Amino acid sequence: MSTDTNPAAPALTRLAERYGISSHFENAYGSTIAVSAETMSLLLSSMGVNVTSQTEAQDALDRLERHDVRDPLPATVVVVPKNNWCLIQVNDRNLPSPLDWRVELESGEELSGHFHWQEGNYYGSDGNVGLTIENLPLGYHRLHLPQMNAATHLLVCPEQCWLPDKVEGGYWGIAVQLYLMRSATNWGIGDFSDLKALVEVAGEHGCGLIGLNPLHQMFLDNPEAASPYSPATRLCLNPLYIDVLAVPEWPASPAAQALVNAPAFKAQLEECRASSLVNYSGVTELKLAALRLIYQSFSGVAPPDRHAAFAAFCRQKGDSLERASLFQVLRQHYARTDVQADWRRWPAELQTAGSQAQREFAEDYRTEIDFQNWLQFIADEQLETAAKAAREQGMAVGLYRDLAVGCDASGAETWANPAAFLQRNLVGAPPDIFSPAGQ
User: Fold this and answer.
1) In angstroms, what CA-CA distances link 386 with 105, 197, 242, 289, 393?
2) Using one digit for the tens of pLDDT, what is the confidence trace for 303-332?
3) Residue 119 CB neighbour total at 10 angstroms
4) Is the torsion defined by CA of 372, 290, 377, 155 positive or negative?
5) What is the pTM for the complete model shown?
6) Which of 7, 145, 201, 362 has the lowest tally of Cβ within 10 angstroms?
C-alpha cells in the first residue's frame, strides 16, 4: 500500500510518495529496506522542494494538498487489456456524459467514441471514474479527452512477454561483448562483420540468440570513456563497430585505400591488433581517418540509389539523428579549445537544443554533421546485415541487444532534453547478492 494513503506515516515519507519517490524497497534477500530521510530530502530538493525537517515536510504537504488540482489524466497510462477491454482511470468524477474520447494509434490511424458513465461504473480506490475502451491494439498510443482538454500517452501492453515460436524444448545462446572479439581482419576491436561471422557459425550449431553489450554511441572526442553503460546517447550506434573494408564505397575510394596501405598506417594498425586491451584512442584515430575519405568518395561517386538510401535513413531518424550528430561535432569543436567538451561548460546559447546559435553552427559545420549522419547510416546497414544473417540461420530470437539503463550526464541525451533529467542526481541499483556495493 502506498504510504500516501497512510496518515500515520511521517510527513516526509508522505511528501516523497506524492512526488513519486519510494520510501522502501525489497532487497535480494526478501527484506524490506527503508529509504533514509536524507535520501528522500535530497531527491525532493532536486525537484525544487526543500525540506529539512518533518515540520517543513508537513507544511509543504499541506500547501500541496490545498493547491492540488490534478489533471484528469496522468502523463502516462499503462493498461493491460482484459477480455479485449482497456480500463483507464480518470481523475475526476464530474465528467460530461457522454464523454468523447479519441485515440491516435502508433500506426497513424485513429479511433474515437463516446463513453456514458453512470453509477455502477468502475471507480478506483480514490473514487475516480474508470473509462473503458474496447479493441485497442497493443502499442504506444495517444489518448485525448477533447471536452476536458486532456491527453496522455497510452501504453497498451500484453499480459506476458513475447516468446518465440521455437521456444518449446528450449534453445541456447551466446552472450558477447562485441568490442572484445578479435579476428584476422578487424582493427583491434570487434566489428559488425565479426558479429555476422559469429552468427553464421553459431547458427549452424543450433544457437538461438546472440546477446550483445549495449552498442550505443560514445564520445568520439574522448574514446577512452568507453563504458557502454554511460553512452552519449542510446538512440545511435557506436561507429567504432563499423568494418571499414565492408563499406560499399570502399572499393571506389583510392584515397582511403592509399591511406590504409601506407606503412605508417599499417604499423599503427598492427599495434592496435596486438594490444591485449582495446586501444580505443588508436582504433578511433584509424577508423575515422579512413571513413572520412570513404565518405568523400560516397559524396562524389556513389550511385543515386545509395544517396537516396542515405537520405531516406536521415528522414526516418529525424531530429534525434540530427541533434546527436550536431552534438558530436560540437563536442569535437570544444575539445580543441580551452572550453571543456562537457556541454554544461559551453556558451549558454549553445546549451539549448534548437537555439539560433546552434542553427548557425550547424550551417557552418554542415559537412561534418553530414559525415556523422553517414557514420550512423553505415553502422545501421552493417548491423542489419548481421541481423539478417541471424534470421536466415533460423535463430529463435536472433540478436538480443542490451540497453543501458542510463546515459552520461554530459552526453547528447541530457543536452537535447535536459528537462527529462534531474541533473544533480545519480541513481543506481541497490546492493544485491552479486554486487554487494550496488551498481
Assistant:
1) 31, 8, 12, 24, 11
2) 999 999 999 999 999 999 999 999 999 999
3) 5
4) negative
5) 0.82
6) 7
